[in-house]
Amino acid sequence: MADREGIFAGDDPFAIARSWLAEAETSEPNDHTAMALATVDGDGMPDTRMVLLKDIDGNGLDGSFVFYTNYESAKGMQITASGKAAFVIHWKSLRRQIRVRGTVTREDGEQADAYYASRALQSRLGAWASKQSRPLESRAALAAAAAKQGVIHGTNPRRPPFWGGFRITPVQMEFWADGAFRLHDRFRWDKQETAWSVTRLSP
After folding, report:
1. So which residues are the catalytic ones?
2. In sequence order, what are the residues at sequence separation of 6 or more whose Cβ sits closer than 8 angstroms to the Cβ of residue 35?
3. Which of 14, 138, 140, 195 is most buried, by CB atoms within 10 Å?
């Protein structure tokens, strides 16, 4: 597309996403990988929460976005049931955002093991201790559960079988940048069989 230049230029949406993420790393004061993840429950009721994007893997038609969580959490069970999710990542400092909709599979192999091992010990033990999304008696009860897991697993806990990654493979992506007088730039990428089609959208 002739007018897709500058920060929007290129034939690979994942390369653009990586470029924007790298810029945000130097400009966002906190959590430049934070994204609002949307799912739906069994009744079709939407649900959103903030999670951290941990990897942008692959390129072209084979790229995906990876985050990690407890598979038994509300979002984990909703994703497992539907196999679909969406997210938006917004960088206020850059005045840009990326929206993604796609299918979801688990990332629970060596890549998940490696990421889990890279986390701080207390975070690894916390993954064992937290019954994510379920009622909790008190903060003290959570601390006690984490301490108990430390006794059980020691200083090198393995990744819990109920904790790992989800890989979102986009069917649609949108790149947005702020424009003067709200005349923003928006480009939607739709996945086709052999290529992405790109459409400029009205702001």
Report:
1. 182
2. 50, 51, 52, 53, 67, 87, 88, 89
3. 14
